[in-house]
Design goal:
mainly alpha; two-stranded parallel ribbon; 42% helix
Amino acid sequence: PHIYGETPDAYIHLTKRGWDQAEWAGSHLHAILSGREDDGDPASETKIYVSPYVRARETVEGMRRGFAGASKEMSNIDIVSDPRLSEYDTCGGILISEDRFWKLNSIRGRNPYFFRWPNGESL
């Protein structure tokens, strides 16, 4: 079974590798921000924009861990969740009937940010 056949895209969690990559990104973000000349706070005036998808929020949490592992909290970094950052999906070139298209399109219209077309691919 394929994960997309069982779980809506917005609810798919990070893999172990994804968590490791997020922590690595957090530690490197700390290094980058620590090199800035500002008021002494490496996180001052820094914002991270994230989609509301579970794996995107988990990525930020992993980054927090990596950032804190570098001896500083990310508490001063503004985390902004924006549904417009959700992935846009298509049918991956798979043809579907017109009736099925219109039925799915009405579902998509009710919740466009958390809808995945069958066999959808992120653009």
